[in-house]
Every structure is written in C-alpha cells, then in structure tokens.
Amino acid sequence: MKSKRYFNTTGFCMPERHYMIDPLRNQKIIFDLIEKTQYFTIHAPRQTGKTTLLHELAHRLNKEGNYISVVFSVESAGYRSITEEIANKKIINSLYSSSGQYLNKKNCPIPPEKYTKDLTLENYLIDWAISQTKPIVLLLDEIDSLYDDVLVSVLRQLRNGFQIRPKRFPSTVALVGLRDVREYKTKVRPSEVSLGSGSPFNIKAESILLGTFTKEEITELYSQHTKDTGQIFLKEVVDRIYELTGGQPWLVNAIAREIVVKILNEDFTKKITLDHVESAKENIIQRRDTHLDSCQNKLQEERVKNIVSAIINGDGVVFDNYDDSLLYCRDLGIISETKPIRIANEIYREIIPRVLNRNLQDSIEEEGETKWYIKSNGKLDMDKLLKAFQEFYSENSEVWLERFDYKEAGPHLLLMAFLQRVINGGGRINREMAVGTGRTDLLIEFNGDKFVLELKLKRMPSARQKGLDQISRYLDTLGMTKGYLILFEIKPSSIIPWETRVKWEDISHQNKNITIVEM
C-alpha cells in the first residue's frame, strides 16, 4: 500500500506529511524559560531539526492560548554591504509576512507601510507588544546570518527591550542559528568585540544545543514507516544506520529514503537488508547531496582546516571550551561533541577524505583493463598495492603535497586516494581518526579479507617504535595478527633522499606479523 507520509530531506517536517518524532520531546527547558520570560539561544548544525522545532513550538504555544508566537528569519538582511536602516526594514517585513502563518489578523503586528513612527525593530516590537493582551514569544531564525553593525544593532535593540518586557516588549526572545550567541563576536569587526556590560550576551539565560537522534529515536522514527506500510527496519539495519550517521537527523532520513524510494522503488513487500544500507550510503556520498555539499564547503575555512587536519594526522590539540576552532567545528556538526575529538560520524569520515583528495583521485588512472592488484582468485594483493604506492609516492608526492590545501594531512590523504580504487572495486575502507592518537588507522575489507593499515608521520625518532606498539594494540582489539605500519618521512628529499627513505621490512612484534612500509 502507498504511504501518505514519507522520509523528509528538504525543508522542515510536518507531522501530517512526514515521518518525524516530536522535536520538543526533550525540551522541557524551553517551556520553563518561556514561563520565566527569559531570552535564550538554540543552536545546532544545518538540517538537524531547528526549523522543525521552531514551527512546532510556535504552533503549540498559539494552540494552547497563553502566548502568541511567531517564527521568522532574518536572513534577508544577511549580507555585508547592507545598512542598518535597510536591514531593519527587511527584518520587520520578514516578521510581518511570517506572522500571518501563525496568528489571526488581530494578533499580527501592524503592516510596516502603515507604521508612522521611526521604523526600527525596537519601536515596532514595543508597539506590537502594547497592542496585545497576551505575552509574545518571538523566535528569530538564522540570527548568525547577520554581519557587523547590523548584528550589533539587532542585539542592542533586543537588549533595550529586555528591560521593559513582558508588557511593552516580547516576553521571550529565542535567537536561533548554527552557533551560540557568545560566538557571534567572531563576525563583528574587532572594535566591536564587546557590546558592553549590558550586552545580550549577558541577558541570555540558556544556550540550547540540539542533539542528534539516539538509536531508540531512530527506531521510533522508522517504526512509523512500518506502521504505515508493514515494511520493517530490522534491529541490525537500525544499528548499522546509527553507526553510519551518528544519529544526524538529515542522514538518518536520507538513508531511509534512499533505501525505500530509490533502491526498493517503494515496493514495501521487499525486505530491507544491510546491503541496502551500504548501497544507500554509497549513493548519497557519490551524489554529494545538498547536505553533504554544505559540509564540504566548510572544509576550506581556516578554523575547520586546523581541526580536520589534526584529526586526520592524529595530532594533539588542547580541548578548550573557548577555543573557537573546536567550538565552530562542533557547532557545524563536523566533529563529535565528546572526547576523543573525531569526525562526527562514519559517513563524514568517509566523505571528508574523498573531498579533500578528489582531484588526485580523478587523476590516478587505471593501467589497462585488468586490476593488477587483484589476485587470480579475486583476493586483494595488499603487498603489491602498497609497493606500487611507494613508487607513486616517491615520484609524485612533492608535486601533489604542494597543491594540497591540507598540506599537513597530505601524505595520509594521498594514500587514501590511492586506496580508493579498492572501494571502487567493491571493497570498503573504515577510517579511525582522532585527535591526540598520533596516527590514523584504516581497516580495509575486500572479498572476505581484512587488512589493517596504520599511518604515522615520522615527527620524532621514536615514531617507528610507538607505531609498532600502537598497531599491535589495534590488532588485539580486532583479534588479528597481521598489519601494515606506514611511516611517512616529513623531512624533504633534499635532506633525506628517496633512495634511503623508501624501505620495506617484515618483522615480528608482540606476536604480530607487521610489515613496515617507509617512504
């Protein structure tokens, strides 16, 4: 039977059209803050349900009848060259046009063109609040799209109104965006890094970071599809989707939609398998859907580059709640919220290296029709593949590393690009990368075989010994006894020539068979 609802990957969710779980399920804090007439912020990465939550909140408050509430976006004023006066008008127009979606005519503010006083956001909100018998809950979306003087102006006007709420100004204001308000100073010119002691940074009662879905919430979401269609997402399928997505709401919906609509063509009699999950993941990555594209664009920003490079190399960074680069990456949803600091989920861990080495990957041509690294029995010849990479690296690395934006992570990215052909041939690479580990671990699965590679930069003379101990521990966790330690020399070939740095050695270490590949 055809389901009336579907998995949504564009725009905010509506319960009558989409499978969704209550966005306010864990948000008692929001209702408490509204009751106490507080100002607060909500922040979360793109496509994690912020706008869905706002719409649900406004509709619920209006339906219950104790408040009047409107959601509106300030994005129309979000460009650098705009003046404060024009920005005020655009923001007010956005508020007025949105109010009609939530309120009846008598509760809406006056049309801006009929407003006779000086048209500022502060004045407009004062007169609207005075005209109403119920307190106003105002939800400003995309607040962090504003720049410089416009951002300062809006925040100052809200600060001024805070003092005279709830009778003469909105009772509660929520600022909603990708980032916490205290981080907005990074978008304000240096002379404005502080807004003074009365700043809205200080009146803000709470900063609410929206979390990802738990495994139980994914199960609940998918069970709605089962209820509508009879098609079941088995526990092993849900577990794998949780591994891939880390509960990121857009990815959770996108994987399900890809399986149900694209792969199974909405034939609800067909069983959903783990193979379907892997195919869905690969399709989404290959297609570089909008959500993944926006993630990719951020990779060129300096703050993101610093952290992602450290994760790929396993370099240490000091975690500090005020370290802007870490907070920025966390707020964008690129890194995990908990230690160790790593890429947020398996799909991002796969797509980020692919994006960063895409040009190289495209340039690595297959030599002839036969895949020379596949044995006659269909198994992967890892020794042959890595020896070929040694040769490729010694001939091409200095040119390629110079081209990389991510120079520090360049050697690791070069190898991952070289190995990507294995993925394209039907294999799979699992990447373990985290800040402070001093390495990157790759687990390559191909035709029933598993290969463990540990990548390490030779920053110190002890790198080799540490690498051997680390890969030995990693092999123990996997219950394996064979692995490859890849050591990259970071000194230029003018200091250590290629003929002395390229080495291949098979040794026994802690009852493990380790192949050390140096270059």
Your description of this structure?
This protein has 3 domains: 27-189 and 197-209, P-loop containing nucleotide triphosphate hydrolases (Rossmann fold), CATH 3.40.50; 215-287; 291-518, no CATH class. It is 44% helix and 14% strand. It is built from 19 helices and 11 strands. The protein has helices at residues 28-35, 50-64, 84-102, 121-131, 148-162, 200-203, 215-229, 235-245, 249-263, 274-287, 290-298, 302-313, 324-331, 346-356, 358-363, 382-403, 410-424, 463-478, 498-501, and strands at 39-43, 68-73, 136-141, 172-177, 204-209, 428-433, 440-446, 449-458, 482-489, 503-509, 512-518. The longest helix has 22 residues, at 382-403. The protein is elongated.
Summarize the SSE layout with pairings:
Layout: H1 28-35, E1 39-43, H2 50-64, E2 68-73, H3 84-102, H4 121-131, E3 136-141, H5 148-162, E4 172-177, H6 200-203, E5 204-209, H7 215-229, H8 235-245, H9 249-263, H10 274-287, H11 290-298, H12 302-313, H13 324-331, H14 346-356, H15 358-363, H16 382-403, H17 410-424, E6 428-433, E7 440-446, E8 449-458, H18 463-478, E9 482-489, H19 498-501, E10 503-509, E11 512-518
Parallel strand pairs: 1-4, 1-5, 2-3, 3-4, 8-9, 9-11
Antiparallel strand pairs: 6-7, 7-8, 10-11
Helix pairs in contact: 4-5, 7-8, 9-10, 12-13, 16-17
